[in-house]
Amino acid sequence: MSKLGHPRPALAGSSAFPRTAAAKDRKRILLITPENPEINRVRRRQFNNFTQITMPYLAGFIDEARYRIELVDEYNQRIPYERPVDLVAITVNTPNATHCYRMAARFRAGGAKVVMGGPHATLRTEEVAQHCDHVIVGEAEETWPQFLDDFHHGCARPRYTCERTPSLQGLPVPRRDLIRRRHFTKGAVFASRGCPYNCSYCNLKQIYRPGFRTRPVQEVIADIQSMDNRYFVFWDDNFFGDRDYAIQLLTALKPLRRRWAAQVSIDRCADDRLLQAARESGCVYLFIGLESFSEQGLASVNKGFNQTTRYAETIRRIHQHGICVQAGVIFGFDTDTAEVFASALEACESLGIDGVTASVLTPLPGTRLYDEMKREGRLTDDDWTCFNGKTHVAFQPKQMSAGELFAGYMWFRRQFYSYGSMFRRMAASRTNLLHNFLVNLGYKWSLQPTPFRRRRKKSARVNFQDGLWETILDAPCFSRLGDNAAKEKRQT
User: How far apart are the first and last CA of the chain?
Assistant: First the structure.
């Protein structure tokens, strides 16, 4: 039994719809991990996307004596609108919000009740409540089981709000057996929650209760042991947030002989003991939010703890421990000019950065960045689909046009994952070369010519559509030398 009194789920091999005599008396619940078609077109080309853990985790709280469970991940599955269900649960992040509202409308029209939770439901509760029957606000370890009990008895309230910090002890094992067609990428687990920092573009502080919290080490180990996968990811926001806890967990993880990745902050990677423990326990790569190679850019978003002068030393140390670096890089800070794309590429190659997840700066609701841009009148769209950081620019940059920002961001991605850049970076890194090359190939294949257009509703909104992507990326203003990039504008 879990701490909350619900039966722990069976791990592998159990059916989502057990055939029992009483099965017809149970309510039918459909859990959905949504992904709008635009983002799906980008992500499906990558072969190294690990599954989101939210819905398998929430499924672990469900009493199958009361509910028949089905889980659908829109990454690789179709939403079964035609299937009769009593309750549809959707986790909503901001870029998927509009898509989720349409989805909910179809299910509600068919008579199903819809409950929504997740980051956007926490940050924009009143808005989300207009599109569903029930809303789970904030962390759900206590409110989700209460809602399920109330719904089963026909007395569910419209809103359930997390009023106190829930414990991360005694949590159920995620129902990974419900994940379909993701055998090699369904290994995901979390050991902690929260982040000790407060970057102005990040909404973690608004989503989670205060403080950095950890799960008991042995419960995390048991969770990992329940997975068939040798490779997995920690979906923590900052896995090294508590150094002593991380070392204790990694020491316990070492005998399992697994291979893993996690997200950490670069300031925690100056610790050789921590890096050694990570490598000895099977760490393959670390995702590190470098975000920018400019001290001014980092200061503009309250990320001054990233010291660019120490990037080279810290990345070299990580590589010496046999760990690859997947860097997060963001374009569009107020200090960024058109030269930022070429200078970022040069920095990545000289540092031997193994991989990059590049994004356009996105003013997510609930963040200081969003409030500042709204106050300055720089938000250029109210369609949440545009707030995905990958296929749109949702604000007016200060040092260039939105079109120049988007084209420069795409130029950087294509150049970074060119064969020439791969070999230059791997020559500098000399770390996990085969794995490094395969991951780079995955990202390169995801960048096959993708259409581009400017949406005309508001001048600064830019996204993919049929036409000009290749033309813009080949423009002389985005040559590798950065020849005063973004001087030309292309008309659509």
Answer: 60
* Domain layout of the chain by residue ranges: 23-161, 179-478
DSSP state of 89: E
CA angle 125, 143, 263 (to 5 degrees): 75
Question: Which residue, 399, 408, 391, is CA-closest to 479?
Answer: 408
* Residue 392 buriedness (CB in 10 A; 0-12 / 13-18 / 19+): buried
Question: Among positive and negative, which fits the CA dihedral 114, 362, 462, 35?
Answer: negative
- Lookup result for tokens 């960048």: 447
Q: Please write the tens of the pLDDT for every residue from 403-433.
A: 999 999 999 999 999 999 999 999 999 999 9
For residue 474, count other CB atoms closer than 10 A to its CB: 11
Identify the CA nearest to 34 among candidates 98, 83, 110: 98
Neighbours of 183 (CB within 10 A): 10
How many other CB atoms are found less than 10 A from the CB of residue 446?
19
CB–CB of 300/335 below 8 Å? yes
User: In angstroms, rounded to a whole number, what is the distance separating the alpha carbons of residues 369 and 488?
Assistant: 29
Helices 340-351 + 419-429 axis angle, to 10: 40
* Residue 305 · residue 442 · CB < 8 Å: no
Query: Which residues have C-beta within 8 Å of that of residue 411, sequence separation ≥ 6?
Result: 341, 472, 473, 478, 485
Superfamily of domain 179-478: tm_1862 like domain (3.80.30.20)
Residue 348's closest CA among 270, 428, 274, 411? 428
Record the pTM: 0.83
475-487 mean pLDDT: 33
3-state SS, residue 264: strand
What pLDDT sits at residue 449? Answer: 52
CB-side neighbour CA atoms (13 Å) of 336: 30
* 126-171: pLDDT as tens digits: 999 999 999 999 999 999 999 999 999 999 999 999 999 999 999 9
Torsion sign over Cα 75, 76, 78, 84: negative
The structure tokens listed for 404 are 């120049």
Return all residues near 153 (Cβ < 8 A) that are at least 6 apart.
none
Maximum Cα–Cα distance across the chain: 72
What is the DSSP pairing of strand 453-454 with strand 462-463?
Answer: antiparallel
Helix axes 243-253, 272-280, angle to 10 degrees: 30
Q: How confident is the model at residue 96 (pLDDT cuts 50, 70, 90)?
A: very high
CB 304 within 8 A of CB 343: no
- Give the number of other CB atoms < 10 A from CB of residue 112: 20
Phi-psi category of residue 176: left, alpha or beta, with phi > 0 → left and psi -120 to 50 → alpha: alpha
Q: Which superfamily does 23-161 belong to?
A: Cobalamin-binding domain (3.40.50.280)
Q: What is the pLDDT of residue 448?
A: 58
